[in-house]
Amino acid sequence: MEYHVKRGKPIDSGRLKKDLNKAGSIAAARAFSEGIEKGAKLSTCPACGSGAHRKLLTIYGFDYHECDGCGSAFVCNPPPEEALSAAYRSAYYTEANKVLYANDSIIDYRVAQVFTPKVEFAIQHSRPSKKTWLDIGCGVGEALSVVKGRGYEVLGLEPNVMEAEYASKRFGIEVRQDYISKDTVSKYRGQYGTISMFSVLEHVPDPNQILSDVSAIQEKGDALVIEVPHFPSISTMSQMTFPDMINRMMHPPLHLFLFSLRSLEGMLERHGYKINAAWLFGQDFYEMMSTLGLFAPALNQSKLLSALSPMMSELQAVIDNHDLSDEVLVVAERI
Ligand SMILES: [Zn+2]
């Protein structure tokens, strides 16, 4: 599959110095993950169906396997359905989302710095005939607020009540507590020129099912925008070295998948899409340094860190240019 690949995205250099210490967040993540029931071992990779996969590492009782068939990493003993739903209702998850996302003090920053470039990239590399946009798992509405500002008619779907209400109140966006499933396909069919799923596919036990439903909604020429954790990356390598020092990408059972580009190509092709463009970027250097900081507290507030901080974007760019970023955004077209 031939398509445009963009690499690198500037990072706020103040960040490294500010919040390198993540000992507290690791302790909370551990308590959360350890308390969740582990399910039966999967025989095949849910992304591609291959039976050839092997264990990479165990994090708090959850095993991540690497698939030889598609190059993705997945949780091989995901929780049973009810245990997974309970995890998303937990105080750990809902409180973290309030601090990270539904937060007036950082929302404008997230819209401008995090979401505007992604939405612009998606618009630049797609050509749907309708200016209508459906964001599945829209969270607090950052992406849709940008899309709305570009003159699109928008709708968000978000199961989390707190986030859905925040999106409506803050951005005046219509948000429904609805899912895309075979029961709701007919309700949304043919209406949305662009469908986006930012940080959604890694959370669902069966990414092929949701892609199949989305594909059934869309028509030839429509655009599908997907952002997921990318594998392999320097972030995941750093976590494989120190499995218990959890970072933002291998966080079981919230992130059931980390996808390779090859696996996204295969899944999208099977569901009737071709990729127009991909963008690799991430925070691998930051993750690597914060992991090191756990073993060497003296690193925090050190002169070395002050010296590295302004170079963070350039250091990450080296990683991005070697396709080892921890995030990927793809823009695909229904064919
Ligand atoms: Zn696979």
Topology (elements, then pairings):
Blueprint: E1 4-7, H1 14-18, H2 23-34, E2 53-59, E3 62-67, E4 73-75, H3 81-89, H4 91-100, H5 107-124, E5 132-136, H6 142-149, E6 153-157, H7 161-171, E7 175-176, H8 185-188, E8 194-198, H9 207-217, E9 223-229, H10 234-241, E10 257-258, H11 261-270, E11 273-281, H12 284-295, H13 303-308, H14 312-321, E12 327-334
Parallel strand pairs: 1-11, 5-6, 5-8, 6-7, 8-9
Antiparallel strand pairs: 2-3, 3-4, 4-10, 9-12, 11-12
Helix pairs in contact: 5-6, 10-12
This protein binds zinc ion.
Zinc ion (ZN) binds at residues 45, 47-48, 50, 67, 69-70, 72, 263.
Give a structural overview.
With 335 residues, this protein is an alpha/beta fold. It has helices at residues 14-18, 23-34, 81-89, 91-100, 107-124, 142-149, 161-171, 185-188, 207-217, 234-241, 261-270, 284-295, 303-308, 312-321; strands at 4-7, 53-59, 62-67, 73-75, 132-136, 153-157, 175-176, 194-198, 223-229, 257-258, 273-281, 327-334. Strands 1-11-12-9-8-5-6-7 form an 8-stranded mixed β-sheet, with helices on both faces. A 4-stranded antiparallel β-sheet has the order 2-3-4-10, with no helix packed on it. It binds zinc ion. Zinc ion is lined by residues 45, 47-48, 50, 67, 69-70, 72, 263.
